[in-house]
Amino acid sequence: MRGDAFLTRHRCAPGADRPGESAGAPGLVALDRLADAEPPRRVREAVSAVSARESEPVGPRR
Question: What's the first-to-final CA gap in the chain, in angstroms?
Fold first, then answer.
């Protein structure tokens, strides 16, 4: 196991599905999932989280 992956896999953020998933690092989670050859659906979940965090908030319509 890679050094960084070992460290991220053994800590678990509150509400994370598995160790290594934290709310502050969805990009790293996506890369870990891709490296672990997880199904594309699981990789896209983390990629979508990155997009959601980086997009500008939308104001409510009146």
Answer: 52
